Amino acid sequence: MDIVAGMQSLGARDAQEDAFRIVPPPPVDRATDLLILLADGMGGHVGGEIASNLVLETFEHHCIAVSSTPHPRQRMTEAMEAANAALARRVRQEPGLAGMGSTLLSVIKLGDRLSWLSVGDSLLYLWRDGGLRRLNADHSVYGELTELVRAGQMTAQEAQSHPKRNALRSALIGDAISLVDCNAIQLRRGDVVVLASDGIETLSERQMVQVLSQQDRTGATQLCADFLNAVEAAGQPRQDNTTVVVYRYDPGRGNGASSNSLFALPEGAPTGLTRRWGLAIGVAVLAVLVMLWGVFSGPASVPAPPVVATDPGPDSRVIAGGHEADAAQETIIKGEDSARPPTGTEVSPDAVKDGAVPVAPAGRPQPGATDLDRSAPHDSPDAATGSDTTERPDNPGDPEAVEGAEGRDVEAGLRTSPRPMLRPGREGREPVFAAGAAGDLGRVVD
Fold first, then answer.
1. CATH number at residue 226
2. What is the 3 state secondary structure string of the chain?
3. 185 and 168: one domain?
4. Are residues 82 and 194 in the same domain?
5. CA 19 to CA 102: how far, in whole Å?
6. Please, what is the angle between helix 220-234 and helix 205-212, to 10°?
7. In the prediction, which pLDDT does 287 show?
8. Do both 401 and 297 map to the same domain?
9. Each residue's pLDDT tens digit in the chain (446 positions)?
10. Are 134 and 123 in contact (CB under 8 A)?
11. What's the number of CA atoms in the CB half-sphere (13 Å) around residue 288?
12. What whole-number distance in Å separates Cα of residue 275 and Cα of residue 298?
């Protein structure tokens, strides 16, 4: 049974603007790590395809051949900046490509740790113990509208009818990147990770749960095919490109990547439980040595160990789980999909059987979330540069200004881009790129 695979569908579009990469090729018997990339291009039939492929080509090259840091977050951030710079260079060389851009979703699995970097509205899901959970932040305007509804600043009906709900607040466009979600979780045996472009949103979470409920009896390739077949069966007349990558964490059978990968542990190195026990023993020995040093050398000032965040942070949205449901929470409908609950909704197999969709408790609004200008004409590219724009605080290191400021050195200096970005809407219009609040950054965990 294969544990990692990816597939694409053209949908009703003339060109494939999605791109994905699984790096390196995944022999299942020698795996210790994995790099997966997904991008959704924008900018017309030619520009979107060029943008997504250029972003992934540059990102992969920087990760594999350029960056020397062993830290996944820093490596991915450097690669993102290199990919963004490559877009800017390409537009300077070919001015006719001006306006192209791409989302970016990168995942590094190292041992039992899954780290990701996300810009845009491509989706990262975790299937665990029969529940579906969205991990990454939604950088579309819809994602911010969801937070405004939870904060009581907007009704679900207003969010549903908002003219710019499908616009992006952040993307790689060769300019400043306004929002970046970078985070990590610890994997458990049996976890299934799903990366997808927004074409998958034709399906409701209930339909996704139905597909994933079969995961224990099928491989990653078949799961990808089942997702795309379900999208095709929905028959949306303007169906977007859809890309799905599925990875199953099964440490007993290998972890899906070649042993010659840049991120691979040396052959014979301890992994999983063995590695954790080795770490615990090492820490215990170190503690004894420190105590002995204190006895024989007198009082000394020993610095406190660094605090390591272990939760996914406020921007990791719970999509499913079932045990913390609150059926009184309002539901937002996104685009044409009347069955899809908002980010924050829990969906379990039992809910599918009963036809009910319980909703998780309301979360707090994103720090610095901007109240969108509903009076601005939605068909004007200039509308995105009005009250929809909120710049990052001048002091990104101030914990009062940016949530989870620890470890944010790599994001210092990022600013909201005033440049509009056109993107085909799900109902045929051209919503504009709408810059959003810098507080959407997730807490960084290395």
1. 3.60.40.10
2. CCCEEEEEECCCCCCCCEEEEEECCCCCCCCCEEEEEEEEEECHHHHHHHHHHHHHHHHHHHHHHHCCCCCHHHHHHHHHHHHHHHHHHHHHHCHHHCCCEECEEEEEEECCEEEEEEECCCEEEEEECCEEEECCCCCEHHHHHHHHHHCCCCCHHHHHHCCCCCCECCCECCCCCCCCEEEEEECCCCCEEEEECHHHHHCCHHHHHHHHCCHHHCCHHHHHHHHHHHHHHHCCCCCCCEEEEEEECCHHHCCCCCCCCCCCCCCCCCCHHHHHHHHHHHHHHHHHHHHHHHHHHCCCCCCCCCCCCCCCCCCCCCCCCCCCCCCCCCCCCECCECCCCCCCECCCHHHHHHCCCCECCCCCCCCCCCCCCCCCCCCCHHHHHCCCCCCCCCCCCCCCCCCCCCCCHHHCCCCCCCCCCCCCCCCCCCCCCCCCCHHHCCCCCC
3. yes
4. yes
5. 10
6. 150
7. 53
8. no
9. 789 999 999 999 999 999 999 986 444 423 348 899 999 999 876 899 999 999 999 999 998 888 888 889 999 999 999 999 999 999 999 999 999 999 999 999 988 999 999 999 999 999 999 999 999 999 999 888 988 999 999 998 998 889 998 899 999 999 999 999 999 999 999 999 999 999 999 999 999 999 999 888 889 999 999 999 999 999 999 999 999 999 999 887 654 443 333 443 333 333 333 333 344 444 454 554 545 444 444 433 323 333 233 333 333 333 332 222 222 222 222 333 333 444 443 444 444 333 332 223 333 333 333 322 222 333 333 333 332 322 333 333 333 332 333 332 222 222 233 333 333 433 332 323 333 332 332 333 34
10. yes
11. 5
12. 34
Q: Give the list of residues 6+ apart from residue 87 with CB closer than 8 angstroms, or none.
A: 51, 54, 55, 100, 101, 102, 172, 173, 174
Q: What is the largest CA-CA distance in the chain?
A: 78
**Beta carbons of 55 and 76 less than 8 angstroms apart:** no
Predicted model pTM = 0.62
Residue 160: its pLDDT value, please? 83
Same domain, 278 and 415: no
Any domain includes 297: yes
- Into how many domains does the chain fold? 2
pLDDT value of position 181: 98
Q: Say which residues have a Cβ less than 8 Å from residue 434's Cβ, sequence separation at least 6.
A: 141, 164, 167, 168, 169, 372, 383, 384, 388, 389
Question: Structural domain of residue 186, as residue ranges?
Answer: 4-265+315-440
Residue with tokens 């169906």: 239
Q: Is residue 102 part of a domain?
A: yes
Q: 225 with 245, same domain?
A: yes
